[in-house]
Structure prediction request, 118 residues.
Amino acid sequence: MNSDSDNIFIGHFLPEGILEYFDVSGVRDLEGRIEVHLTEKNMHPVEYQKDKLTSKGFFEPVTVQDFPIRGKASYLKIKRRRWLNETRGLVVYRNWDLVANGTRLTKEFAAFLKAMVG
Prediction:
């Protein structure tokens, strides 16, 4: 996305707080679905702030289904970052708990569906 107002607008359709850690890198309006592409910001995880980290690119993107938008299925295409922790000699990444366990749905959407089913 190319402007702050675009991010503010699309942020209303995304899980709360996600734009704190991810940039919207694109939105595709496809037949029957909307894809929002998110790329993790290069912000070191808090637990490694004292260590020397070097960016080592990204994991393969994952696709997570979220609430429909205007009757279209919506999918978040998420690219997560990884770093080499030169202090400890291992690859590290941010531990974020957005996806409901055992699903490819956001926690908010999974809770909504569970409440609907009962």
